[in-house]
């Protein structure tokens, strides 16, 4: 039996730098373990950057969180699934999908849950920086 994973990797609106109201929820159930990397690529969807897994050596920067209480993890992650649009009506396509991913933090590998974009990125411009916060700061400079 595989061990349960109680970690979450976030790269967008749930990161501490976004000051999103959902971040306050996240911090009630998860503790920040620090900055980390996963293999992935960012794309500019206009309203929000999105990420998909990468097969090459492209990495995205985000934050790794650990559940405060493993007994509450499944309930807490279900609430985040709703926020990320994983749970949609039967006739609607989910916005994101939650999957396990290998996380790299200070030379140590572990596994965490991540929300990958569940749409087509073929017509979207790729974000080369690998860090949504840095990209948005550059994009929004006057």
Any chance you could write out the topology, listing elements then pairs?
Blueprint: E1 7-10, H1 21-29, E2 30-44, E3 49-53, E4 59-67, H2 73-83, E5 96-105, E6 108-117, E7 126-127, H3 132-139
Antiparallel strand pairs: 1-4, 2-3, 2-4, 2-7, 5-6
Shape, please? Answer: globular
Distance between the termini: 53 Å
Proportion of helical residues: 10-25%
Detail the poorly predicted runs. Answer: none
State Rg. Answer: 15 Å
Oligomerization state of this entry?
single chain
User: What is the strand content?
Assistant: 35-45%
Average pLDDT, all residues? 89
Q: What's the order of the H and E elements?
A: EHEEEHEEEH
Q: What does this 3D model show about the protein?
A:
Strands 1, 2, 3, 4 and 7 form a five-stranded antiparallel sheet that branches. Strands 5-6 form a two-stranded antiparallel ribbon. The chain is about 20% helix and about 40% strand. It has helices spanning about 20-30, 75-85, 130-140, and strands spanning about 5-10, 30-45, 50-55, 60-65, 95-105, 110-115, 125. It has about 140 residues and is an alpha+beta fold. The model has no long low-confidence stretch (mean pLDDT about 90).
Question: Can you give me a brief rundown of this structure?
Answer:
By secondary structure, the chain is of the alpha+beta class. The protein contains 3 helices and 7 strands; from the N terminus they run βαβββαβββα.
Defining key terms:
single chain; alpha+beta
